Task: inverse folding
């Protein structure tokens, strides 16, 4: 049994980033034709954002994943106007997009306390409806978690992303010498001496053509979207997916990865990024690294080997480049520090931007 549960855990990961639920507004109440009485409106279904909730908790608490609001009261002699049905409030985590089955985005819930109406109750029976009530709106919706971690590990398969996660956190993702070992994101937490914690998501490897959904690229790139900072991991010796595919040097993998992100969504390229050049313990790694650094300094001189359309619009820029080896431990401490530094800088920038906006709006209100 232990074995079975481990397999399941491995297959489905430790967390959920998408939950599909059924929501239905309550039916309206019956009208009262003889006295012209109006039935009560059916209750509505609302999503209400709350901190410290997870999609998994919702699923565990409501395994049927059905949320139905109350029916409006019928009109009667003692209460001609029927009472409204009880609203149903579904507590959901902050940072989710609410998406219908057909892909239409109904809204986002970003801060605790925010509410979104997802199923309206039906109107009560009245003169206009021949005193017959109508049913509530019903639909299947996805609660799609937007941000899963502070940092996302981005790379081609086999670069050593999972190995790096095990070095910087207590997570224990599967590691193996074949492509696509990781098929679902795995989370780890880096704990700093001042108790600050940063979450890192080990993501499945991307391949060339990921932006066009090759190798399930879209579902993997969706996870990249959900992180604040990117940590590119490349094998210093380069990568070849199969003997029938072209060999790519470390430089080419970086350029191709950057282009895949850009083609999928340009905003992904604006995220702050760090580059970890892995497997520095391998023979000749230092010469390969020197060559790689030279190529990164003058990228335009080295991009002829890339397929047409795969040259990024903007130059590839990294906040830090750190040679590492998850085998020898080289560069691991440095990468932990760099992750923290870049996140802190970004947080400061956000505060400054916010303050600047506040001052700007204050000036505007004073001058009007
Ligand atoms: N020599 C050497 N091998 C490494 C190093 N880090 C990881 N590896 C090996 O590289 C292979 C791939 O490692 P993973 O951590 O599974 O790579 P990944 O990027 O998570 O791969 P996917 O999940 O398939 O995308 C394994 O055989 C690791 O043992 C390193 O620093 N040096
Ligand atoms: Mg992996």
Result:
């Amino acid at each position: 049994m232990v074995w079975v549960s481990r397999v399941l855990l491995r297959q489905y990961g430790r967390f959920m980033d998408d939950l599909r639920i059924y929501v239905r507004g309550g039916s309206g109440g019956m009208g009262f034709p003889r006295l012209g009485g109006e039935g009560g409106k059916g209750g509505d279904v609302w999503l209400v954002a709350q901190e410290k909730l997870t999609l998994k908790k919702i699923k565990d608490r409501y395994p049927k994943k059905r949320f139905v609001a109350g029916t409006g009261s019928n009109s009667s002699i003692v209460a001609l106007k029927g009472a409204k049905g009880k609203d149903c409030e579904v507590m959901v985590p902050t940072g989710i997009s609410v998406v219908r089955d057909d892909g239409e985005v109904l809204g986002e819930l970003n801060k605790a306390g925010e509410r979104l109406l997802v199923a309206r109750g039906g109107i009560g029976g009245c003169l206009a409806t021949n005193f017959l009530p109508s049913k509530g709106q019903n639909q299947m919706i996805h609660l799609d978690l937007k941000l899963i971690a502070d940092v996302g590990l981005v790379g081609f398969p086999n670069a050593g992303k999972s190995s790096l996660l095990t070095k910087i956190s207590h997570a224990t993702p599967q590691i193996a010498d074949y492509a696509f070992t990781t098929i679902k994101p795995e989370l780890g937490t880096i704990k700093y001496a001042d108790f600050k914690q940063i979450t890192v998501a080990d993501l499945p490897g991307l391949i060339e053509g990921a932006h066009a959904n090759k190798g399930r690229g879209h579902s993997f790139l969706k996870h990249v979207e959900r992180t604040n900072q990117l940590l590119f991991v490349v094998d210093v010796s380069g990568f070849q997916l199969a003997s029938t595919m072209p060999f790519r040097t470390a430089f080419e993998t970086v350029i191709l990865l950057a282009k895949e992100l850009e083609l999928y969504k340009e905003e992904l390229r604006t995220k702050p990024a760090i580059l970890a050049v892995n497997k520095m313990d391998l023979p000749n790694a230092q010469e390969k690294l020197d060559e790689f650094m030279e190529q990164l300094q003058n990228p335009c001189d080295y991009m002829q080997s890339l397929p047409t359309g795969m040259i990024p619009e903007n130059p590839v820029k990294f906040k830090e480049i750190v040679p590492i080896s998850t085998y020898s431990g080289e560069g691991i401490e440095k990468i932990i520090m760099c992750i923290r530094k870049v996140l802190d800088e970004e947080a400061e920038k956000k505060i400054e931007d916010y303050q600047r906006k506040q001052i700007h709006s204050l000036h505007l209100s004073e001058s009007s």
